[in-house]
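Lab notebook, bench 4. Still working through the backlog of constructs that have no structural model yet. Next entry is a single chain of 389 residues. Request: give me the structure tokens for it.
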Amino acid sequence: MLIARRLLRGLCVAFAASVIQQSPVAAAEPVMLWDPAVPLPTKAAAPVLDGVVFHVIKRQRPDTDGCNWTLGVGLAWHKEKLYASYGFNKGGENTASEEAHVRVSEDGGTTWAPPVVIDAGEGNLGISHGVFLSHSGRLWAFMGAFYDRFQKTHTRAYVLNDATGKWEPRGMVVGNGFWPMQEPQKMADGNWIMAGFRVKNGYNVAGDLPAVAISNGDDVTKWDLVVIEAAPNLGDIWGESTVIVEDSRITNIARYGSKPLALVSTSTDSGHTWTPVAPSNLPMATSKPYAGTLSTGQRFLACTTTADTGGGRSPLTIVVSKPGETVFSKVYVVRHSVSDKTPGVSDPRADFSYPYAVEHDGKLYVGYTHKSHIANELAVIPVAALKAD
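Model written out:
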């Protein structure tokens, strides 16, 4: 009888375990990036920012320079000049004819000097868009690069010669698929962190995942790649990412891929280890985001974020938090597709891709690309206009 009871108990335990294994796992609660107490407005209801001034960085001119593709504005202020870089291709996107170009403005973006080639690549090597770092009197550029048709992505460094205006190559500084998406930022431990993503093409790895590169102190020619793993069952993602740095705590916000939803991951040890990247409660277009902290203490995120835009890349928006808070609670429209305020593209089909932002002297300079219309533009926003109250 005792043996029978033990056998029955064992069968019951085995059955219960089988039920548990076969039952669907409850979905995890989304990470809070948006204040759930505040309704997210539609694109028609979101307020349009006042006082924004628009400029053109580079418009489509295939008749003069053969430009068939451009994308990926990077911005930096250096010695009171505004630098804007971008990828340039007379062929198609992500092909070996890609080049890294830069223009310089001495009047805050109103006018621009002629384009300068940072690097045109050679043979099957293409150089594309990237980021800047003005540090210790020198301007560095870290540009995404690849071979053939988007194989073996890596990052190459360049230093501006202020006397000649030419860019001096420093070679590959981050390998294994890393493409930089945001300028290096100093962390509490003395290292710099550069946000981007790891492209798998040509490497024996799985997933196009969010990633960061961490410097060895102030030596910005040596970086360690840290790939942020995905939470289970996310499916395919295209992890172009940005970070918000707060001492040793770093928040990574990444593009999902096909789903119009921001992904988020957190590090509490200056970027060395991360929580698995997971869905947030913030809708976001399927484009590269750019985030940071304003001088007011507000977090901000530039992309397309409204209640009804889904994966669409219009309008261009900025979401902000209240000073010192970690959740966003206000959406502003920088511009709609049709606008009478810009000297650039105004068209119902205009889209806003790959935003980038830098604050300077009370203004937020936001670069973006009309990918469908092949034009890079700049919006200059008074920081005082970005209140969340």
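Notes after review: The chain has one helix and 25 strands. The helical segments are 2-22. Flag for follow-up if needed.
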